[in-house]
Write a structure and sequence with these properties.
The chain is α+β, with helices and mostly antiparallel strands. The protein contains nine helices and 14 strands.
């Protein structure tokens, strides 16, 4: 049984190479069947296309033309040279021609076509290809959208095989670690981040039980190493997926150097504030809205006297008369201050005067 009909003599005509039922099946599969011919002088022509080419590309078969080099004019200009190169290589070697290119429809839309063609050299020197192109547009658009999303993600994303080798990484990984994507493929993740025990798997397969020890699931902070040898703090989350019974790990992480710097500066600022707070000659006290003391410095402790082991939890109005405080309606809004003078209750029998701001 042959799929395509016999080849007509040069200059002759023939019926469609495929049976009608076969053409209907191919149309349902969004496939275009076609026949290509290369003459002895190297000129290329397409004597036949299946009718569904108009459904996919918007042009009837008789509207398809080739340029002076033999490339179909519907093929995207950037793909014509590579398509012609594969065509001539197939003609010379008589090996299958694998074709993958973009085509421009009558409406100006880009479609991706992919297929194969098998050559036959006739006694008169012509080469004939019978082939099919499948509309691969939906898949290519999905891949392009996925790649765009991954390349613009701020976080580093790795896909790790069961033996801890990197099988895929995104653009952020290249930016953060200094490797090209191709240089990361096959590299052990332990070469980039510190693993438990600080060991590299050296691309050696190991049991999945060991996988969890080598790459514990969940989130953690580790030290990561760039290609130039410099290190940086790296926060990563490891999760696992299984596809067709095979284990893969998804590693998502980010450089947290800026966060660490901000935390260090904040800690230093807090320490300076604590030193200043403790060394201040003025009494400083932090109270809740109901007046409960939450924090105080040594100077305020000295002002309050020796009658308390701790002032925490004691109400400020134990010392300050209620009548010296302004009513709630007269308390300034946040960001503004007020000042009152009072004689505190300290219980030592002496007269004391406080100025509260």
């Amino acid at each position: 049984m042959t799929l395509f009909s016999p080849i007509p003599k040069e200059g002759g005509e023939s019926d469609p190479p495929l049976a009608p039922v076969t053409l209907r099946i191919l149309a349902d599969m969004e496939c275009i069947a076609w026949r290509r011919e290369m003459a002895v002088d190297g000129s290329v022509s397409y004597p036949w296309f299946s009718d569904n080419v108009e459904t996919i590309l918007g042009l009837p078969p008789e509207r398809f033309t080739v340029n002076s080099k033999g490339a179909l004019t519907v093929i995207h200009w950037a793909d014509r040279d590579s398509h012609l190169a594969s065509l001539h290589r197939s003609a010379a070697t008589q090996e299958p021609c694998h074709e993958d290119f973009r085509a421009i429809t009558a409406a100006g839309e880009t479609r991706w076509l992919r297929g194969s063609a098998y050559p036959r050299r006739l006694e008169d020197g012509r080469t004939i290809w019978d082939g099919m192109w499948q509309d691969n547009t939906q898949r290519m658009r999905a891949e392009a959208q996925h790649q765009m999303l991954m390349d613009h993600a701020a976080d580093c994303i790795f896909i790790i095989s069961g033996n801890a080798c990197i099988t895929w990484s995104n653009a952020a990984t290249e930016r953060n670690f200094g490797y090209l994507a191709d240089e990361l493929i096959g590299r052990c993740i332990g070469d980039l981040v510190e693993l438990p025990g600080n060991t590299s798997c050296n691309n050696q397969p190991h049991a999945e039980a060991d996988d969890d020890a080598c790459l514990p699931r969940g989130s953690r902070e580790v030290n990561a190493k760039r290609q130039d040898g410099t290190t940086f703090p790296f926060e990563m989350t490891i999760s696992e997926v299984r596809n067709d019974g095979k284990l893969s790990l998804i590693v998502i992480g980010r450089d947290i150097s800026r966060r660490r710097t901000a935390e260090r500066l904040l800690a230093e600022s807090e320490q300076r504030l604590r030193v200043t707070f403790a060394a201040a000659s003025l009494g400083i006290v932090v109270v809740a809205l109901d007046g409960t003391i939450q924090f105080y410095n040594p100077a305020f402790e000295a002002m309050a006297g020796d009658g308390y082991d701790s002032l925490l939890g004691i109400n400020l109005f134990t010392f300050v008369p209620n009548d010296v405080m302004p009513p709630p309606s007269h308390i300034p809004p946040p960001g503004m201050s007020f000042c009152v003078l009072c004689e505190p209750y300290l219980g030592d029998g002496d007269d004391h005067h406080w100025r509260l701001t």
